[in-house]
Amino acid sequence: MRKGTIFKYELKRLFCSKEYLLLLAVNIVYCLALLRGSVIYGTGFTAPFSQWTFCSYLSSAAVLLFILLLALCARQFTTSERRAVTILETSSVQMAVFRAIRYAATACAFLTAMGLSFGICFVFYRLVFDYTGFGSLIYAGLILLLPPALFLFGAAMLLGHKRQALVYILLAVVLILGAFGISLPDCMDLFGTSVVRPLYTGVQKFTFSNEFLAGRAAFTIAGVALIIFFIKRQRTNMSPMIFLRKS
Amino acid sequence: MKIELKHLSKTYPHGKAALKNIDLTLASPSLIGLVGPNGAGKSTLMKLLTANLLPTSGEILKDGSPLIKQEKELKSGLGYLPQEFGLFEDLTTTQFLDYMAAIKCPDKKTAKDEIDRVIALTHLQDKQKAKIRTLSGGQKQRVGIAQSLLGDPELLIFDEPTVGLDPAERFAFRNLFAETAKNRLVILSTHIIEDVQPACDHLVVLNGGEILYTGTPESLMAEKHAATLENAYMALVNGRASA
Ligand SMILES: Nc1ncnc2c1ncn2[C@@H]1O[C@H](COP(=O)(O)OP(=O)(O)OP(=O)(O)O)[C@@H](O)[C@H]1O
Ligand SMILES: [Mg+2]
């Protein structure tokens, strides 16, 4: 099996898909609007390039980023994709490796969109404020976005294996939570909107609350566990019966 | 290669028995035609042969040892076209075949040669650069056949490969299958009896999950005193002694 070739095609299929390019364009436009409309004024009287402001910016951008991620996940479960995978299952391909390649391609497409959201903001900071201390911003941004992205990816795999429509229902739930700004407890805060709350109670030094960090850890563990489960599950598409028969 | 089915049964969960106590031996080289009415169990049998499904009882032996223990060997020498298959519609014909060849061929050079070979065999030269989404039903069917021929597998299983093909293409594919089966085991299921007679050296008729007939098409015609295979088949399925 030539993994590089398969990875190349999986990337091509994602990066050249109309829905990805469209969502990416919408995401970029939205990020630019956020920079001009809110980031430039800073959050809660902090600098526009403070961690508070950057996290506030990312939690607004997160809604579209997660929708993009779920749309990419849903693509894997269309009828024609499923049927094409049936052919692969009867070939000598190791399904676990194949799945891992596919997931990696999806991750690349998502990380590109996420990287662009970071990048646009950094270019803005550099041009407008000549600010370049991006290290602490990147750190805060990754904690804010990566755990829920892992969780949503895992959840999408779980639901998609049952029915493609369930991934779209998850997407709708994310959209509704984001669009109406429905606030969840810190530990379940998908978009990280709760991060800036301490700022309005007089806290000046940027930190994540313990409850928020615990939630991020839980998202990561659940997401990684689901992803590994689905990568491995595919290794034996005939499981669990095969184990029963072999034993 | 020799494949033996022993007391093979398959009942789907919450379903009825799709195959009932099948005993059958298939050996290469041979072109085996699997026919039977809708719901007879043809696709189920093919899925069992490709290890896509597990039997409820009974077993399948490949060259004397259980198929389940040689799943990897089986799959590395298998070309399969399911009845309902999907293609990556956003790729072109060549790109899709290159994707599949990345699985079936060890290196780029072999893959390139194989892709050229199967494209020529399935007459897709003028559709090489076309997106699969833009192909007609019959052309997609030919891409499906092309992918199963990649890597020159020793066992080929086609579930209704000639559906949607025009008469000229059907004729060409009949010849292709017959030619391929000269040194391989090729199993094809079909509803088109005319596809079987000129090409297949062996006929298996399934009905209601049971084997009604196995033998050459000619001996079935002789047995049913029929002038055509179609008449003989109808007599068999309807339980008449002669056509
Ligand atoms: N996934 C499934 N779950 C439950 N029952 C099934 C399933 N797939 C097939 N069956 C049943 O098993 C029987 C055999 O089906 P199969 O698809 O093997 O028939 P077939 O001979 O290929 O028919 P056709 O000529 O229409 O393709 C049918 O009665 C069908 O209803
Ligand atoms: Mg069928």
UniProtKB/TrEMBL annotation, chain A:
Report the superkingdom from the record: Bacteria
Transmembrane as a keyword of this entry, yes or no, is: yes
Keywords assigned by UniProt, alphabetized: Membrane, Transmembrane, Transmembrane helix
Q: What residue ranges are annotated as transmembrane?
A: 20-43, 49-73, 103-125, 137-159, 166-184, 213-231
What is the official name of this protein in its record? Uncharacterized protein
Q: Which organism is it from?
A: Caproicibacter fermentans
UniProtKB/TrEMBL annotation, chain B:
Q: One GO molecular function term?
A: ATP hydrolysis activity
Instruction: Answer whether the UniProt record assigns the keyword Signal to this protein.
Output: no
PROSITE patterns in the record: ABC_TRANSPORTER_1, ABC_TRANSPORTER_2
Query: Is Transport tagged as a keyword?
Result: yes
Q: ABC transporter domain: which residues? A: 3-233
What Pfam families does this protein's entry cite?
ABC_tran
Q: Which Gene3D superfamilies match?
A: P-loop containing nucleotide triphosphate hydrolases
Q: What is its EC number?
A: 3.6.3.-
Lineage: superkingdom:
Bacteria
Q: Which UniProt keywords apply?
A: ATP-binding, Hydrolase, Nucleotide-binding, Transport
**Family stated for the protein in its record:** Belongs to the ABC transporter superfamily.
Identification of the protein by name: Putative ABC transporter ATP-binding protein YxlF
Species the sequence originates in: Caproicibacter fermentans
The coding gene here is yxlF_1
